[in-house]
C-alpha cells in the first residue's frame, strides 16, 4: 500500500514538473516562431516545433534558447518586442542586416552576455532597454543612424562585466553618464558620430579603457580632457571634432597610446613634452585647435598633423621669446583660457598683443581686469623685470599674491582687488599703489611687522574682526545645517563638511617650526606614547588648546611623495565624526612626516583598562565601559557606511587606538593609516596591517579585508571590556593565554560567567544581565565572518543597554572640529609671527609643504 502511494505521488510530481518545464519550453518556442515569422527571408530550416534544431540557434540541456546567431543574412523585418522572455539567452547576434522597427527590450535578461545589433536600421530604443543586464559583456549597436535620439541609460551601471560598448553613429544624445566606477571591466567605448554633449564623466578616472572613440559629435563634447591622464591603458583615443578645451594633459602614464586624434577642438596651452616622448605613439593630429607655445616636435617615426591653425609662437620647432614664455606661464596659471590664446598669438608680446603694454621691446603693463579669469597668479610674473603696472583685478583668482612680485623694482601699481585670493600680502614698498580690497580671505595679519606698509593697525583690527565674524557666521551656518539634518539618514554630513571646507586648504600644512614650538622641540616630557609608526607628542597652541602630534620615522612609511601624502591627509581630514579622532593637519620635514590630531585628555582605553593602577586612574565602571563600547561602535559604523566606497576599514582597532576625552567618552583613532592590499595605492603606510590578537582569523590567513575584520576586533575589545584582560596575556596559564578562546569557553555555561568578569566590576544581578548581553554580542562578533553582525546592528544592540545612562551631547559638540581647526589656524599664524619665520618661506610652505 505504502509503496504504491509513494509511486503515485512521485509520478504525479514528475508529471507536474514536466508540465511546468514544457510550458516554459513552449514559451521559448513561441517567441522563436514569432521571430521566424517577423524576419524575412528567415533561414530555410526555421520551421518545425523544435527551434533548438534551427540554424544559428543553440539551446541548453533544458531546451531553453541560449543563442541566436543571424549575422549578415540580408534580413528585413523587425524583432518581436517580447524577445526578453527568452530568459536563458546568452548571445543575440543580428549584426549587419536590414532590420527595422523598434529595438526589443532586453530588460531582465540576466544571462545575456553578447549583443550585436549593429549595422541595421532600427527605429527606436525602448524604455527599459538595458535594465538588469548583469552578465552583459558586449553591447554593439553602432551604425543604426535612423534611431530616434536616445541617451545611454543609467541602468547600464548594473552591467559590471561590460567590456565593450559600441554605439557609434546611433544617434545617442545627452551626456555620457557618470557610471564608469561601476564598469571596472570596460575596455572599449565607441560613441562616435552622435550628438553627445557635456563633459567627460569624472568616473572615467583610473578606468581601464584602451579604446576610446568619442569623435565627431554633432554639437560637441566640452570641458577639459584632464581625466585621460589617469587612464593608463589607453591605446587609441579619438576625440576629434568636438568642443573640448583646456590644455592637453600629461599622458605619460599611457605608454601604449599609439593613436591620438585631437584635431578640431579648442585645446589651449603648451603641447606637453611628455606627449612628444610617448614611446608607442604612431599617429597624432593636433590641427585646428588653439594650442600655444613652441611648435611641437615629435619623433620622425610619428605620423603627425599639426596644421597652421594653432597659436604656436613659431611655425617651426624652437623656443619662444622669453617674454612670450613668461606670459604663457601666466596664462597657464589661469588654466590657459581661450581668450588668452587668441589674443597672444605669435612670438612678440609687444606686437599688438591685447592686455599687454610695452616700452620698446619690454613688457611694462599687463591689464587683465575683468576677464573672468580663474586660477592663480603665476610666479613667472617675476620675469618681467620692467613691469610697472599689473592689473589682474575683478576676476575669480585664488591662491596667494606671488611673493616674487616684491622683486619687481619698477612696479608702481598692483591691483588685485575683487578676487578670491588667500594667504599673506607680501611686504611691498610703501611707494607701491596696492589695491587688495574685495578679497575676503586675504590675510593682512603680517602687515603689522613691516613699518613700510601703509596698512594701519585699525585696519588690521577691522580685518581680524571681519574674519572672526565670518568664521562665526560660517560655523553658525554649518551648525544649523547639521542640527537640521542630524536626524536624517547618513550622507548629509558631506554637506556639513562643505561648510568646514571653508577653513581647509592652506592651514592643513603646519610649518615644522610651529610644531617644534608647540612641543617644546619634541621634548621627552611631551611624549604621550609610542606606537608602531613612531612617537606621539603633546603640543599646546598659543590659546591653550592642546593637540597631539604623531611623528613618524621614514622607515615606517612607504616612499610617499608630498602630493600623495597631502591628498591622503586631505581625505582623512574630511572624515569628521563625534567618535573619530579628528585629523587637523600635517607636515613633512625631510624624511619625517607628522600628523596633527585633536588631543584626547584621558589617554587610551588600554591605559584605563589594563594599567589603571600604575596610571592612578580609578577602574572603569561597567556603565563607562558600555558607553565606550557604543561610542566605538558608532565611530566604526560611520567609517563603514559613509566611506564604504573608499573601503574605509579601520583594520587596527584595539584599546590603544580607542582614545578617551572629557567625561570618558571615546573616539576611535588611527583610521585610514593601515592598508595593505595592492590596489590601495594611496595608503599612508606599508606596514603589515593590524595587531596580533585583534586580527580576524580569515584576515590573518588570506589578507582578505572586509568590514567584518573590524567587527571581529570590536568583539575582542568587548571581551577585554568585560574581563579587564588583554587579548594576549603572557602572564597567565596557557589555557587562559588567548582571551577569545578562553572567554568563549565561559559562554557555554552562563553560570560561570561571573568568573570571567573583571574583578573590579563586582556586578549586581541587573548589571550582570547587562554584561551577559554584551558577552553574547562579543561572541557573535568573533564567529565566522558570515555570522558576524555589522556595526549598524551592534549600535542598535548596544544603544538600549546605555539608555538610562548615556548623557546626551550638547549640540555644541558638533562644531568642535571647526573650533579646533580655527584655534590651530590662528595659532599657526600667531606662532609663526612670534617665532619670526621669514614670511617668504612661510608662504612658500603653505603652498608647497613644510620642508
Ligand atoms: N590624539 C591623541 N591624544 C592623546 N594621546 C594620544 C593621541 N594619539 C596617541 N596618543 C598616545 O600615544 C600613544 C601612541 O600612539 P600610536 O598610535 O602611535 O601607537 P599605538 O596606538 O599604541 O599603536 P599603533 O601604532 O598600532 O596605532 C597612544 O598609546 C596614546 O597614549
Ligand atoms: C524586471 O524585473 C523586475 C523585478 O523582477 C520587474 O519589476 C520589472 O518590471 C522587470 N522589467 C521588465 C521590463 O520586464
Ligand atoms: C532606414 O529607415 C528610414 C526610416 O526610418 C528610411 O528613411 C531609410 O531609408 C532607411 N535606410 C535604409 C538604408 O534602409
Ligand atoms: C544635438 O543636441 C542638441 C541639444 O542637446 C540639439 O539642440 C541639436 O539640434 C542636436 N543636433 C543634432 C544634429 O541632432
Ligand atoms: C596612421 O595614419 C596613416 C595615414 O595618415 C594610416 O595609413 C595609418 O594606418 C595610421 N596608423 C595607425 C596606427 O592608426
Ligand atoms: C624666468 O627667467 C629665468 C631666468 O631668466 C628662466 O630660467 C625661467 O625659465 C623664466 N621663467 C619663465 C616662466 O619664463
Ligand atoms: C628693457 O629692459 C632692459 C633690461 O631688462 C633694459 O636694459 C632696457 O633699457 C629696457 N628698455 C626700455 C626701452 O625700457
Ligand atoms: Mg594608535
Automatic annotation (TrEMBL):
Chain segments annotated as transmembrane: 459-479
SMART domains for the chain: LRR_TYP (SM00369), S_TKc (SM00220)
SUPFAM superfamilies registered for this protein in UniProt: L domain-like, Protein kinase-like (PK-like)
Binding site residues for ATP: 550
Gene Ontology molecular functions: ATP binding; protein serine/threonine kinase activity
One annotated Gene Ontology cellular component of this protein: plasma membrane
Record InterPro entries: Auxin_Ser/Thr_Kinase, Kinase-like_dom_sf, Leu-rich_rpt, Leu-rich_rpt_typical-subtyp, LRR_dom_sf, LRR_N_plant-typ, Prot_kinase_dom, Protein_kinase_ATP_BS
Signal peptide bounds: none
UniProt keyword Metal-binding, yes or no: no
The Protein kinase domain, residue ranges: 522-802
Subcellular locations according to the entry: Cell membrane
Keywords attached to this entry: ATP-binding, Cell membrane, Disulfide bond, Glycoprotein, Kinase, Leucine-rich repeat, Membrane, Nucleotide-binding, Receptor, Repeat, Serine/threonine-protein kinase, Signal, Transferase, Transmembrane, Transmembrane helix
Membrane protein topology class: Single-pass membrane protein
Family the entry assigns: Belongs to the protein kinase superfamily. Ser/Thr protein kinase family.
Protein's name according to its UniProt entry: Protein kinase domain-containing protein
Source species: Nelumbo nucifera (Sacred lotus)
Taxonomic classification: Eukaryota, Viridiplantae, Streptophyta, Embryophyta, Tracheophyta
Amino acid at each position: 500500500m505504502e509503496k504504491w502511494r509513494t509511486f503515485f505521488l512521485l509520478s504525479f510530481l514528475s508529471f507536474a514538473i514536466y508540465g511546468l518545464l514544457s510550458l516554459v519550453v513552449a514559451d521559448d518556442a513561441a517567441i522563436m516562431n514569432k521571430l521566424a515569422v517577423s524576419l524575412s527571408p528567415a533561414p530555410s530550416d526555421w520551421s518545425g516545433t523544435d527551434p533548438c534544431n534551427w540554424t544559428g540557434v543553440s539551446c541548453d540541456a533544458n531546451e531553453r534558447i541560449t543563442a541566436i546567431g543571424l549575422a549578415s543574412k540580408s534580413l528585413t523585418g523587425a524583432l518581436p518586442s517580447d524577445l526578453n522572455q527568452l530568459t536563458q539567452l546568452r548571445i543575440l547576434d543580428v549584426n549587419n542586416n536590414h532590420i527595422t522597427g523598434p529595438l526589443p527590450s532586453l530588460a531582465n535578461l540576466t544571462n545575456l552576455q553578447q549583443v550585436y545589433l549593429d549595422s541595421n536600421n532600427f527605429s527606436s530604443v525602448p524604455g527599459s532597454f538595458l535594465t538588469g543586464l548583469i552578465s552583459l559583456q558586449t553591447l554593439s549597436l553602432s551604425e543604426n543612424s535612423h534611431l530616434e535620439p536616445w541617451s545611454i541609460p543609467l541602468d547600464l551601471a548594473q552591467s559590471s562585466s561590460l567590456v565593450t560598448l559600441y554605439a557609434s553613429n546611433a544617434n545617442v544624445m545627452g551626456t555620457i553618464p557618470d557610471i564608469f566606477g561601476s564598469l571596472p571591466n570596460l575596455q572599449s567605448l565607441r560613441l562616435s558620430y552622435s550628438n553627445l554633449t557635456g563633459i567627460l564623466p569624472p568616473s572615467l578616472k583610473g578606468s581601464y579603457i584602451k579604446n576610446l572613440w568619442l569623435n565627431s559629435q554633432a554639437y560637441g563634447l566640452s570641458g577639459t580632457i584632464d581625466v585621460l591622464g589617469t587612464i593608463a591603458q589607453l591605446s587609441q583615443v579619438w576625440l576629434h571634432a568636438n568642443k573640448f578645451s583646456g590644455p592637453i594633459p600629461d599622458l605619460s602614464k599611457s605608454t601604449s597610446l599609439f593613436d591620438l586624434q585631437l584635431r578640431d577642438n579648442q585645446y589651449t596651452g603648451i603641447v606637453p613634452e611628455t606627449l612628444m616622448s610617448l614611446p608607442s605613439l604612431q599617429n597624432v593630429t593636433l590641427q585646428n585647435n588653439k594650442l600655444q607655445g613652441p611648435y611641437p616636435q615629435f619623433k620622425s617615426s610619428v605620423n603627425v598633423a599639426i596644421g597652421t591653425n594653432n597659436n604656436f609662437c613659431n611655425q617651426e620647432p624652437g623656443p619662444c621669446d622669453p617674454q612670450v614664455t613668461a606670459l604663457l606661464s601666466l596664462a597657464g596659471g589661469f588654466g590657459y583660457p581661450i581668450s588668452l590664446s587668441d589674443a597672444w598669438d605669435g612670438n612678440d608680446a609687444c606686437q599688438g598683443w591685447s592686455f599687454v603694454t610695452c616700452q620698446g621691446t619690454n613688457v611694462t603693463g599687463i591689464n587683465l581686469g575683468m576677464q573672468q579669469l580663474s586660477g592663480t597668479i603665476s610666479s613667472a610674473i617675476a620675469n618681467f623685470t620692467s613691469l610697472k603696472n599689473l592689473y589682474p583685478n575683478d576676476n575669480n583668482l585664488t591662491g596667494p599674491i606671488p611673493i616674487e612680485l616684491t622683486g619687481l623694482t619698477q612696479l608702481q601699481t598692483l591691483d588685485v582687488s575683487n578676487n578670491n585670493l588667500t594667504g599673506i600680502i607680501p611686504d611691498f614698498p610703501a611707494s607701491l599703489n596696492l589695491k587688495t580690497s574685495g578679497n575676503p580671505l586675504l590675510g593682512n595679519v603680517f602687515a603689522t611687522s613691516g613699518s613700510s606698509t601703509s596698512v594701519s593697525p585699525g585696519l588690521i583690527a577691522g580685518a581680524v574682526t571681519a574674519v572672526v565674524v565670518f568664521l562665526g557666521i560660517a560655523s553658525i551656518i554649518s551648525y544649523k545645517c547639521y542640527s537640521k539634518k542630524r536626524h536624517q539618514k547618513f550622507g548629509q554630513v558631506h554637506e556639513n563638511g562643505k561648510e568646514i571646507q571653508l577653513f581647509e586648504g592652506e592651514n592643513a600644512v603646519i610649518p615644522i617650526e610651529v610644531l617644534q614650538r608647540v612641543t617644546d622641540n619634541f621634548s621627552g616630557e611631551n611624549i604621550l606614547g609610542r606606537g608602531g609608526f613612531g612617537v606621539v607628542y603633546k603640543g599646546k597652541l598659543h590659546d591653550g588648546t592642546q593637540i597631539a602630534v604623531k611623528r613618524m620615522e621614514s622607515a615606517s612609511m612607504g616612499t610617499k611623495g608630498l602630493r600623495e601624502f597631502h591628498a591622503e591627509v586631505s581625505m582623512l581630514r574630511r572624515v569628521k565624526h563625534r567618535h573619530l579622532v579628528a585629523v587637523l593637519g600635517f607636515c613633512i620635514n625631510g624624511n619625517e612626516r607628522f600628523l596633527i590630531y585633536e588631543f584626547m585628555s584621558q589617554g587610551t582605553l588600554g591605559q584605563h583598562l589594563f594599567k589603571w593602577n600604575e596610571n592612578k586612574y580609578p577602574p572603569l565602571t561597567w556603565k563607562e565601559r558600555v558607553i565606550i563600547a557604543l561610542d566605538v561602535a558608532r565611530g566604526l559604523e560611520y567609517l563603514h557606511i559613509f566611506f564604504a566606497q573608499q573601503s574605509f576599514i579601520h583594520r587596527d582597532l584595539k584599546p590603544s587606538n580607542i582614545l578617551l576625552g572629557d567625561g570618558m567618552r571615546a573616539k576611535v583613532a588611527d583610521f585610514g593609516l593601515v592598508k595593505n592590499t595592492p590596489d590601495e595605492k594611496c595608503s599612508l603606510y606599508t606596514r603589515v596591517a593590524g595587531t596580533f590578537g585583534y586580527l580576524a582569523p580569515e584576515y590573518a590567513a588570506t589578507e582578505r579585508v572586509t568590514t567584518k575584520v573590524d567587527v571581529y576586533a570590536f568583539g575582542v575589545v568587548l571581551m577585554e571590556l568585560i574581563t579587564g584582560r588583554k587579548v594576549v596575556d603572557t602572564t597567565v596559564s596557557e589555557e587562559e593565554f588567548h582571551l577569545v578562546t578562553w572567554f568563549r569557553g565561559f559562554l557555554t555555561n552562563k553560570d560561570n560567567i561571573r568568573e570571567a568578569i573583571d574583578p573590579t566590576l563586582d556586578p549586581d544581578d541587573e548589571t550582570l544581565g547587562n554584561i551577559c548581553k554584551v558577552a553574547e554580542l562579543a561572541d557573535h562578533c568573533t564567529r565566522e565572518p558570515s555570522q558576524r553582525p555589522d556595526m549598524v546592528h551592534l549600535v542598535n544592540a548596544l544603544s538600549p543597554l546605555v539608555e538610562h545612562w548615556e548623557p546626551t551631547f550638547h549640540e555644541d559638540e558638533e562644531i568642535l572640529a571647526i573650533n579646533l581647526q580655527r584655534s590651530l589656524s590662528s595659532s599657526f599664524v600667531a606662532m609663526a609671527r612670534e617665532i619670526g619665520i621669514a614670511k617668504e618661506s612661510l608662504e612658500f610652505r603653505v603652498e608647497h609643504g613644510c620642508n
